[in-house]
UniProtKB/TrEMBL annotation:
Functional summary from the UniProt entry: Catalyzes the phosphorylation of the position 2 hydroxy group of 4-diphosphocytidyl-2C-methyl-D-erythritol.
GHMP kinase N-terminal domain boundaries: 81-159
Taxonomy of the source species: Bacteria, Bacillati, Actinomycetota, Actinomycetes, Glycomycetales
Claim: ATP-binding is one of the keywords in the record: yes
Active site annotation, chain numbering: K22, D151
UniProt pathway: Isoprenoid biosynthesis; isopentenyl diphosphate biosynthesis via DXP pathway; isopentenyl diphosphate from 1-deoxy-D-xylulose 5-phosphate: step 3/6
Protein name: 4-diphosphocytidyl-2-C-methyl-D-erythritol kinase
Keywords in alphabetical order: ATP-binding, Isoprene biosynthesis, Kinase, Nucleotide-binding, Transferase
Family recorded in the similarity comment: Belongs to the GHMP kinase family. IspE subfamily.
NCBIfam families: ispE (TIGR00154), PRK03188.1 (NF002870)
């Protein structure tokens, strides 16, 4: 271990952070950039589906990760895990030689286009910074988050934000005057994010697909707190055609929700989760009971947004 890594004495204790999923009310995708990413214009909203990340100091040096909850068996516990990457990155940045166990309790559907992995990474940054007593500025944390993934900076903050660049450049000055209610329908299908972006490019090469740059009408509607009925036609996702092209069965799921009376069916990010907008909470609960929708989805969750971002709770000494 280098002198720099040994600089801080080893802290002890446990920090628990709850972190919400994200959805994109508007997801405008530009052309493929030279760096392999696409320019985005997106409106993020954090919704009330939460993972809990608990980081505890350990007698053993190094970092380990354990996972429980919905879809836990699909979450890697090796170097591919974004929360583990986040803790390693923070350890290097903070000159800490970590000895900790990261525990993820999953309620955000895994690989669903809801940024569950990014949310866990954001929560891990917050938890480890607290546990290791690193006094980082918001800007430092956001830069570390952006290095981990395009959605991670938003997951650090939650609420509602406009994202540009590859999604990591955030404007938090949006006013959201109302809460909206959703049914979140997961699907048996699997779509990887890069696969969906490649399909967007392939369809566009064949003149299929749109470019949705105009986000102002949605921003104004959110600011005015317009009812869900008026938000529904403003929901846009340039990846939706690609997701449905890759997994045509999503179209039946979307129709099942619309037939049950949802105001809109909206693919979440790169899918395969589908979001159904409801008039209010009671409507969301009744949609989630619809037999046709229940038969078409893997699982249904009722959620609302926007909600606040990661909330930390220190349990034990540090
Ligand atoms: O940023 P993140 O690691 O989540 O991105 C995963 C993959 O999704 C990237 O490697 C890229 O293929 C694709 N992507 C993209 N444009 C973005 C964000 C992600 O093409 N704005």
């Amino acid at each position: 271990m280098s002198e720099a890594l040994a600089r801080h004495s080893r802290p002890t204790g446990t920090v628990r952070v709850t972190v919400p999923a994200k959805i994109n009310l508007h997801l405008g995708v530009g052309d493929l950039r030279a760096d392999g990413f696409h320019d985005l214009t997106t409106v993020y909203q954090a919704i009330s589906l939460y993972d809990t990340v608990t980081v505890s100091t350990s007698d053993r040096s190094g970092l380990r990760i354990t996972v429980t909850g919905e879809g836990a068996d699909q979450v890697p516990t090796d170097e591919r895990n974004l929360a583990l990457k986040a803790a390693k990155l923070l350890g290097i940045y903070g000159h800490i030689s970590p000895a900790a166990v990261i525990h993820l309790d999953k309620r955000i559907p895994v690989a669903g286009g809801l940024a569950g992995g990014s949310a866990d990474a954001a929560a891990t940054l917050v938890a480890c910074a607290q546990l290791w007593n690193l006094r980082l500025s918001d800007i430092e944390l956001e830069k570390l988050a952006a290095g981990l993934g395009s959605d991670v900076p938003f997951c650090l903050r939650g609420g509602i934000a406009l994202g540009t660049g590859r999604g990591e450049e955030l404007n938090h000055d949006l006013k959201a005057a109302a809460t909206y209610h959703w049914v979140v329908a997961t699907s048996q299908a699997h779509i990887s994010t890069p696969e969906c972006y490649r399909e967007v490019d392939r369809l566009r090469a064949n003149d299929i697909g749109r470019y949705s740059y105009h986000v102002q009408p949605l921003l104004k509607a959110l600011e005015a707190g317009l009812p869900a009925e008026e938000i529904a036609p403003l929901l846009v996702n340039d990846m939706e055609a690609a997701a449905v092209s890759l997994r045509p069965e999503l179209s039946s799921l979307m129709h099942a929700g619309l037939d049950a009376g949802a105001l809109a069916a909206h693919v979440s990010g790169s899918g395969p989760t589908v979001l159904f907008l409801a008039r209010d909470e009671a409507h969301a609960r009744s949609l989630a009971k619809s037999p046709k929708l229940r038969a078409s989805a893997k699982a249904l969750h009722v959620a609302h947004g926007p909600v606040a971002g990661p909330a930390e709770q220190l349990t034990g000494s540090r």
